[in-house]
Automatic annotation (TrEMBL):
Residue ranges occupied by any DAGKc domain in the UniProt entry: 30-175
GO molecular function ontology, one term from the record: lipid kinase activity
Gene3D superfamilies: 2.60.200.40, Probable inorganic polyphosphate/atp-NAD kinase, domain 1
GO cellular component: a single term: membrane
InterPro entries: ATP-NAD_kinase_N (IPR017438), Diacylglycerol_kinase_cat_dom (IPR001206), Lipid_Phosphate_FormReg (IPR050187), NAD/diacylglycerol_kinase_sf (IPR016064)
GO biological process, one term: sphingosine biosynthetic process
Name listed for the protein in its UniProt record: DAGKc domain-containing protein
């Protein structure tokens, strides 16, 4: 293995061709791609939008990726956008969540209501960039890719077109409600810690540890 240092003047006529070749080698395609990027500005420590602008946007630009940005404004906003009446998705090569596992979960609940759900899941690549409190899926993706868990690493995997099929689970309650899941389905104290720790969102991932201790000290009695 060796290193090659390339030096060229910005006005050199062959430079654009060289850049295109590097992009093709790194991403597997020279074609411009278009994504829908959904950002939850309240994820984690409420820095998702800033991190998207500072870290994701420049990398996407260098990888020949255009994207439309949707900044969610309320709970369920991402679900509404993913539903059939939420707007067209056919123009996108990928849909990227910038936030925690909860944001992608919201998006999947919209997808599962669509009549073209199966076709959409085959045709469109879904990705996640970790900017939330719980980033289990994002950590699994970069681990499988041999990268170190970070916003930049997840964005890099997306830019490289490093996608592969993933299993999903569909749960239906006695009331007839359906839920599409990509990690697990849980109840009891695990679900309590996940949902009720929202009040400690400012702590970031530490919220789960703190609330878990509190819930064990103050167990619910039924």
């Amino acid at each position: 293995a060796g290193h090659v240092r390339l030096v060229a003047r910005s006005a050199h006529p062959s430079l654009p061709l060289l850049v295109d070749c590097i992009r093709t080698l790194s991403t597997g395609t020279a074609a411009k791609r278009k994504f829908l990027v959904v950002v939850n500005p309240f994820s984690g420590k409420k820095r998702a939008l800033v991190q998207c602008d500072r870290e994701v946007r420049p990398l996407f630009a260098q990888s020949n990726i255009d994207f439309d940005l949707l900044v969610t404004t309320h709970a369920g906003h991402a679900t509404e956008r993913m539903k059939e009446d939420g707007g067209d998705l056919s123009e996108y090569d990928g849909v990227i969540a910038v936030g925690g596992d909860g944001l992608l979960y919201e998006m999947m609940q919209g997808v599962q209501t669509r009549g073209d759900r199966d076709d959409l899941l085959r045709r469109v690549t879904f990705g996640i960039i970790p900017a939330g409190s719980g980033n289990g899926l994002a950590a699994s993706v970069v681990h499988a890719a041999g990268e170190v868990d970070s916003i930049l690493a997840n964005a890099f995997v997306i830019c490289k077109n490093g996608s592969k099929p993933s299993d999903l689970s569909l749960y239906e309650t006695a009331a007839g409600n359906k839920y599409l899941s990509f990690l697990s389905c849980s109840w009891g104290i695990v679900a309590d810690v996940d949902l009720e720790s929202e009040v400690l969102r400012a702590l970031g991932p530490l919220r789960f540890d703190v609330y878990a201790v509190w819930r064990m000290l103050a167990l619910k009695v039924r």
